[in-house]
Design a protein that fits this description.
The complex is a heterodimer of chains A (270) and B (265). Chain A has 270 residues and is mostly helical. In chain A, 76% of the residues lie in helices and 1% in strands. In chain A, strand 1 and strand 2 form a beta hairpin. The longest helix of chain A has 32 residues. Chain B contains 14 helices and no strands. The chains are: A mainly alpha (270), B mainly alpha (265). The interface between A and B is medium-sized, with 29 and 33 residues.
Chain lengths: 270, 265
């Protein structure tokens, strides 16, 4: 049992490490792609500075302007740093190559997760590094404590897993509908508003906040960003609990869908 | 005059062919349009929520945002609906030596290349722009005229800027990311209230990244029924295209094709 665990850890760790090295080999390409964060952060800084000035206050719904600026950087890190394995799954289903990849000596979904993790680590790091100077220039250093940072990182990791589950379901929908683009787009847009990417949930109308806080979208973006700028143990416990509940629900759905899809797969010849 | 008429007829034929080719795949055609409509709609929802919370910001109210979205979406949509081979697409074609196919044909190279592809999803932008305009409540025929003409001119400035960005590939080799980021920057800045930016940033938005001419200026033209500003925008659009043609043809002298065989169907 322990040997199996050790072997799996080595195997999937090697997958993550290999893709991490691949990404680092083309770091200039990745840097070019991450450049958009500078533009978007610049725009956000000006928009929210104007919004706070209009209100004539330095704090709105418990967030200072500096908090809000850093909040957006972390939210963008989570969104732009995502790996898009669902596109790969859809392609594999469409061209039939999934029949071969399923036979390989690893769990198909676990492979995609650990492979994507290597990509995400580089992307998230670069986006943060490019966006941070703008935040530092306009908002100063974030109020982050080293003691609570591991808790924030845990929420970020679970947010990545949750997002992976949802995108996997979308990718596997290719077994039913050939084109999964529209599902991906709908999910992404739900994260924009109900996930707090474009506006923190704290600034939404009360009724919408209540709905958004129960749904899983805010747990992929808002939760890590909010904890990063204004950490509270109460929030951490709530986010962690909700993430675990949604991981069980969406993970269960994904497991069922994966089994169903694998049964539907017809392999002819050899 | 005959030459111009001839070129316009050619462009019309190209556009018609692109449209009928795109409509061949009906499901994809409709889903792309709806997708873009949804994409724009979410930003619209964001602004509704934003103004619901904060009221006016630096002189911009929600009605100004309706108008801003209407002109930018319509301008962007019209620009890329038929002239989609600009920006990263143009940079890619130059880098891969795909201009060879067009070079041997007896047509003006720049217009032929640019208008040879349409972006289907931009039909969603065009329809979104027209629907967003309904929210402004400006239904006087003159307002409508100013809206349509200034959006078209804003789109022309954007397409010219995108063509210049794509032409950078003649000088830099791989310019796909640079041109993509430049075009994205112009569209992003155009979609936010111009009054947010001041000083050097404002200067940049009317020069290096001409987002002001895509969003803010058309908005001012419609709001003030400003003929003078409309003529200025027309001048900027003409200037932008002259510059785009100059950069493209100067760059073309450096063009080197590969031995790749491209088949255009």
């Amino acid at each position: 049992m322990l040997d199996q665990l050790r072997l799996n850890t080595l195997k999937y760790g090697a997958i993550t490490l290999t893709n991490l090295q691949n990404q680092l080999a083309y770091v200039w390409d990745a840097l070019n792609r991450a450049f958009f964060i500078i533009i978007i952060m610049f725009v956000f800084v000006h928009l929210w500075t104007a919004a706070y000035a209009t209100q004539g206050t330095n704090e709105i719904a418990g967030l200072t302007l500096a908090n809000t600026i850093w909040y957006f950087l972390i939210a963008e890190v989570m969104e732009l740093g995502k790996f898009r394995h669902d596109v790969k799954i859809t392609e594999e289903v469409r061209d039939g190559s999934i029949a071969y990849t399923l036979n390989r000596p690893y769990n198909y979904l676990a492979y995609h997760f650990f492979n994507g993790l290597g990509e995400s680590i580089v992307k998230m790091g670069l986006i943060f590094l490019l966006g941070a100077p703008i935040c530092l220039a306009y908002a100063g250093w974030p109020a982050v404590h080293l003691v609570t940072l591991p808790a924030v990182l845990l929420i970020m990791l679970l947010a990545t897993v949750l997002d992976f589950f949802v995108l996997s379901i979308i990718g596997l929908l290719a077994f039913v509908t050939e084109d999964t683009n529209s599902f991906r787009l709908i999910y992404q847009k739900l994260v924009f508003i109900l996930g707090g990417l474009l506006i923190p949930l704290d600034f939404l109308p009360e009724w919408l906040q209540r709905v958004a806080r129960l749904l899983p979208f805010n747990l992929t973006t808002y939760a890590p960003a909010k904890l990063f700028v204004a950490f509270e143990w109460g929030d951490f416990g709530r986010f962690l609990g909700l993430q675990l509940v949604w991981l069980v629900i969406i993970g269960g759905l994904l497991t069922w869908q994966y089994r169903w899809a694998a049964q539907r797969l017809a392999i002819n010849g050899g | 005059m005959n030459r111009l008429k001839n070129e316009l007829l050619f462009l019309r034929t190209l556009m018609a062919m692109n449209l009928s080719s795109a409509m061949e795949y009906r499901a994809s055609f409709i889903s792309q349009i709806l997708g873009m409509f949804l994409n724009n709609g979410i930003y619209f929802v964001f602004w509704l929520l934003f103004f619901d919370r904060f009221g006016a910001v630096r002189g911009y109210e929600i009605s100004d945002i309706y108008l801003l979205f209407a002109v930018v979406a319509l301008g962007y949509g019209l620009a890329y609906m038929f002239a989609a081979n600009t920006g990263a697409a143009l940079a890619g074609m130059i880098a891969q030596g795909k201009l060879d196919y067009y070079l041997v044909l007896p047509r003006d190279l720049l217009t032929h290349v640019i208008f040879s592809r349409m972006s289907v999803s931009t039909i969603g932008d065009v329809s979104f722009g027209l629907i967003a305009y309904l929210f402004t409540g400006r239904f006087h025929p003159l307002d409508l005229l100013f809206f349509l003409v200034s959006s078209l001119l804003g789109g022309a400035v954007l397409a010219a800027f995108s063509a210049i960005a794509g032409s950078l590939a003649f000088f830099m080799g791989n310019a796909q990311q640079v041109s993509l980021q430049a075009t994205n920057a112009a569209v992003t800045f155009a979609l936010y209230p111009n009054s947010l930016f001041s000083g050097m940033t404002r200067v940049l938005l009317y020069t290096l990244i001409p987002a002001g001419f895509v969003g803010a200026v058309p908005v001012e033209i419609v709001k003030g029924r400003d003929v003078g500003l409309l003529v200025t925008l027309l001048g900027v659009a003409v200037l932008a295209w002259l510059l785009a043609a100059a950069v493209f043809y100067v760059g073309l002298r450096r063009y080197e094709s590969g031995s790749a065989i491209n088949v255009n169907l």
